[in-house]
Amino acid sequence: MKTSYDVLIIGTGIAGLSAALALPKSLSVLIVSKDYAWECNTFYAQGGVAVAKDAADIPLHVNDTLEAGAGHCDLEAVKTLCSEGPRAIQHLIDMGFQFDTDDVGNLLYTKEAAHSTNRILHAGGDATGRYIHLFLMQQLPFPILYNTQVTDLLIDHSTCYGVRVSNNDRIFNLYAKKVVIASGGVGSLYEYHTNAKTISADMQGICLSHSIALRDMEMMQFHPTAFVLGNSVRKQLLSESLRGEGAMVVDEEGKRFVFEYDPRGELAPRDVVSRAIFKHKQATGKEVYLDLSAFSPEHFKERFPSIYFNMTNIGYKVPEQRIPISPAFHYAMGGIATDLHGNVLHVNDLYAAGECANTGVHGANRLASNSLLEGLVFAARVAKEIIATFDDRKLPCAFSETEEVLMKENDKVLKNELRHLMWNTVGIIRKTKTLHRSLNRVEAMLTQPIGRLLKLRLLVSREIIISALKRKTSLGAHYMKEEKTL
Ligand code: SIN
Question: Which CATH number fits domain 411-470: 3.30.390.50, 3.40.50.620, 1.20.58.100, 3.30.450.40?
Fold first, then answer.
């Protein structure tokens, strides 16, 4: 098998595939996928893609993004996202992608929380991510190496030359002049999450092991409306667009209690609604539901076919029956620090785009449906940067091909303990004392005889906890509960 390429891309979500599609076919490009290509967060994205509807909407999209981000966004990153977004969407449409339209072909825009106007495009009703993923895969001119776990980055003197991988129990190196990380976030660190099973923070951990900076790692987003009952690892998301189009969050008595926390009620930013649900459950000990009675059965089935199918399969008669909900981990605002061209800071020829990256675009709380747009916009920028800096130098293909043991016997027990600890103490509401306790436990786990993959998870968990401890006051998704001093 060929082991040397012009460009290696790690990940098959919207960012990885978009970067690949924006590269010239004359380059040799390999995409590395940990599992099947569809096991990525893009595939499971329901609601849609936020995009300014016209030039006048761009500053409004900027404002909504900044406001949801709680004043912590990078203004230039937000302006880039919102102003380059319409072109990225038009490019997708020009390639042949079909968003949902009305009978005469006008694009349909829906509303989601914290957007001041309807600007969310969708496809297949509530299957936007799946439709985009399939479409991008169909256009792809480059090969994908499946079932391939990246175990390390090959870095020497601050330059990246490729990755070490495990494929079919064989460890070997793949060399490349340019390496793009587009591997998604950190969902599997948490007990309850909406992410694909492949999303387990490996690349973020590898970056930490090379002292590559992660930024804003305390900023973890919890989606307010997930169905978390049942044994599936990935919890069923109940799209924000349900609330945008009339679904209500109610308690057992049918009371819309979110208004007691924020005058915008169910349409307040995600962090606000998640905390309201979490606190209400804690305070009353009662169940919280998503009430779908605003929808007629026919319209619901047509507009939200995937949610209809999934919930019916589980045994709920929707929209007639209300669904028990809980917040669940959904998205990492924090990630590998990059500039606005996707360059990983202080490492040559290494790039990151999409959820794994942190450009500062989401601040302390991502605005709903900005992530697919981020994947499109910033992946295109990465491809442009690669093309602009590409040269024909020879690669030094002489890195060791030995690797630590990836998994050890006791890892599963510790992995589950970690997921429980992260959910309970580094989740929606955090306290200094319990964060310290969790940090000590994570440090202790790191000293045990564990496999490399668990070690990478622990490194990232430790980073999240340390970042949470450093930010002493609440901001956006990072909420510190005041502790009474004795
Ligand atoms: C959703 O459909 O609620 C998810 C959209 C997003 O995460 O932006």
Answer: 1.20.58.100
